[in-house]
Design goal:
Helix content: 40-55%
Largest sheet: 4 strands, parallel
Order of helices and strands: HEHEHEHEHEHEH
Distance between the termini: 23 Å
Length: 212
């Protein structure tokens, strides 16, 4: 099923939409069979809706997602699964990425689920709680004084020089496939709404605000 979206008739669909939609279907199937998966709740905020003068207001609460307190687990979990399904893996393989928090924790968490090691590059100004959360997932954290962009470059360099598998949510020239898999994994949030707020053909909402 292709994720439904509204496209201005005067413009063409975003590049790669069909491919991302196909991967979103794979992610939806994968997540529903994943150990510990459960749809996150949707809360109806009637008092705030009345205050704003809208018919209804709903909040999809991602805090229970895989025990990570963030939606980010959906993207790396599918991307890493799909990488393993399409590449030859070895027992000593290492996953790596750059992060300032939730994405890196999701990569570290998924690596632990799969029985692999993870090395996470973080700006050295990252909050200690975020660093500790990633270490608690069993990953090694490398703090980078030069900041986030430098951390991204170091993760990519480690992938090139050491053969580590880069699971980065930041697309760069020549590195777009894995980020697109991560984006496809996030579509599971939308697919869960089909059994709560609306069916595929008749959405019951007029405006959706997304993380960006």
């Amino acid at each position: 099923m292709i994720p439904r979206c509204v496209v201005n008739p005067s413009t063409s669909a975003p590049p790669g939409l069909e491919v991302t939609a196909a991967h979103a279907d794979l992610a939806w199937t994968y997540h529903r069979g994943f150990r510990g998966y459960a749809p996150t709740p949707v809360h109806q905020l009637d008092a705030i809706a009345r205050e704003l003068g809208v018919t209804s207001l709903h909040l999809k609460d991602e805090s229970p997602r895989f025990g990570l307190n963030a939606f980010k687990g959906l993207g790396p979990s599918f991307a890493m699964h799909h990488w393993l399904a399409t590449h030859e893996a070895t027992s000593d393989m290492v996953f790596t990425t750059a992060t300032d928090g939730n994405h890196g924790r999701a990569v570290a968490w998924m690596a632990r689920q799969l029985g692999y090691r993870a090395v996470i590059y973080m700006p050295d100004y990252s909050a200690k709680a975020r660093v500790d959360a990633i270490i608690n997932e069993g990953a090694r954290v490398v703090l980078v004084p030069e900041g986030y962009d430098a951390a991204v470059q170091l993760a990519q360099k480690a992938g090139d020089e050491q053969g580590w598998i880069v699971i980065q949510d930041t697309a760069t020239p020549g590195y777009t496939e894995v980020p697109s898999w991560i984006a496809a994994g996030y579509w599971t949030m939308a697919r869960e709404l089909e059994s709560t707020l609306h069916g595929p053909a008749e959405p019951a909402v007029d405006l959706v605000l997304l993380h960006a």
